[in-house]
Amino acid sequence: MMKFADLIDENVEELAKLDSLEAGKLLTNGMYIDIPTCARMLRYNAGFADKIHGETLKMSRQFQAYTLKEPVGVVGIIIPWNVPATMFCSKVSPALAVGCTIVVKPAEQTPLSALFIVQLAKMAGIPDGVLNVVTGFGHTAGAALCSHMDVDKISFTGSTEVGRQIMVAAANSNLKAVSLELGGKSPLIIFDDADVDKAVDLAHMAIFYNKGEICVAGSRVFVQEGIYDEFVRKSAEKAKSQIVGDPFDPLVSQGPQVDKNQFEKILRYIDYGKEDGATLLTGGKACGEKGYYIEPTIFTDVKEDMRIAKDEIFGPVMSLMKFKTVEEAIEKANNTRYGLAAGIVTKDIDVANRVSRSVRAGVVWINCYFGFDNDAPFGGVKMSGFGKDGGKQGLEKYLNTKTVVTPIYNSPWL
To answer: In angstroms, rounded to a whole number, what is the distance separating the alpha carbons of residues 215 and 372?
Structure first.
């Protein structure tokens, strides 16, 4: 695994280019964030490989007992198209570290980085058959993986709708274990005491990073009434200053959406926003006559029952809403079927503590966003799925616990 990580470091530019070509990701983000993160994930999880152990148990009867941590077996991993290389390594590295064999099904839109990475794994010395990539469509290759009787575990990242289908396939086959990282409609709650300029920067990063194609995107932005008007004005100015274009251009801040289907879905939701009565503050149109480029879009006067406030759009569309009290902010933030992430911007530690404990989400970022780290568990609640990536918990889902018990006679202690 360490050699594997070294080879990824040696091929950063190639991998970043593949993800830019297929997913429209900014090349600079790939070279300086995504691909180096892949190598760090491998090294982090490799450090656990010789530390997988169970416990000695204190039995109440005349027995001695201990637990063994054993790999679940064959793991099927289905990854999405928005951060292809990063998703590959985040899911594969803990499964490799605990001793599982793996079949990865990359998204049909973005298979190239997976195929390149698995070739690096072979060069690193990972034995044939341990790490495999099968390309194909979800309804064929993905469905076959989920229903296969020799697959012991499925890890899926994608939409809630497909997550439901995977659970059905797992139940109808061999009751294989399932972990799901699904959709999100994450709230970013900004209080009156926040530095408005910093809050605007944070909010724009939370929704417009990776052209909004990110599961934890802060798509619902709640701003307290005391700074709301100033926030709206500065947010519009910042959105209009963004450069949308060629992801290989270092001056560009937003590349194209992944494909025509996603492009059309986002534009359709922008139309829904207008139809439902939200006010289009800025953006709202396609950019240029060629390619799948969309302007950074901000709606104000958004109500919680509008489609743009309820549904995951997975694009550069911000829904801005106003609130008065802490209680109202908590209620509005929790008014969603999702529970993946949340953000809080405040200088008041009491407010930060209260809100972070009240919002139902798998991760809460205070005065930051995208605060990912290898040591920090990540995963959702409610219809955002279950199961954790990162830290020790990220390994547990690829392990089974076996208890071994034997009698003990004439022991001086029990």
So the answer is: 13
Distance CA 257, CA 163 (A): 23
> Tell me, what DSSP letter sits at residue 155?
E
CA 369 to chain centroid:
13
Tokens 């794994």 identify what position? 121
Round to whole Å and give the CA distance between 158 and 73: 23
Nearest to 232 by CA among 222, 242, 217: 222
Provide the residue type at 97 as one letter. A
Q: Of 298, 304, 84, 325, which is closest to residue 206 (Cα–Cα)? A: 298
3-state SS class at 138: helix
Task: State in Å, rounded, how far the first CA of the chain is from the last one.
Answer: 42
- Measured distance CA(89)–CA(66) in Å, rounded: 32
pTM exceeding the 0.85 threshold for the entire prediction = yes
Express each pLDDT in 51-93 by its tens digit: 999 999 999 899 999 999 999 999 999 999 999 999 999 999 9
Q: In what order do the strands lie in the sheet with 363-366?
A: 279-282, 297-300, 317-323, 220-224, 187-190, 341-345, 363-366
Catalytic residue among 181, 213, 295, 312: 181
Measured CA to CA in angstroms, residue 117 lies from 7, 42, 108 at distances of: 9, 12, 16
CB 147 within 8 A of CB 178: no
- Which strand (E) or helix (H) includes residue 228? helix 225-241
Output the average pLDDT for the chain: 97
With a CB cutoff of 8 Å and minimum separation 6, the contacts of 214 are 82, 83, 314
User: CB–CB of 178/166 below 8 Å?
Assistant: yes
Q: What is the pLDDT of residues 35-46, one digit of tens each?
A: 999 999 999 999
* DSSP-derived secondary structure letter, 402: E
237 given a catalytic annotation: no
Q: Rounded distance, CA 31 to CA 37, Å? A: 10
Residue of 203, 188, 187, 191 lying closest to 351 (CA atoms): 191
Nearest by Cα to 203 from 279, 310, 281, 316: 316
How far apart are the C-alpha atoms of 93 and 320, rounded to whole Å?
38
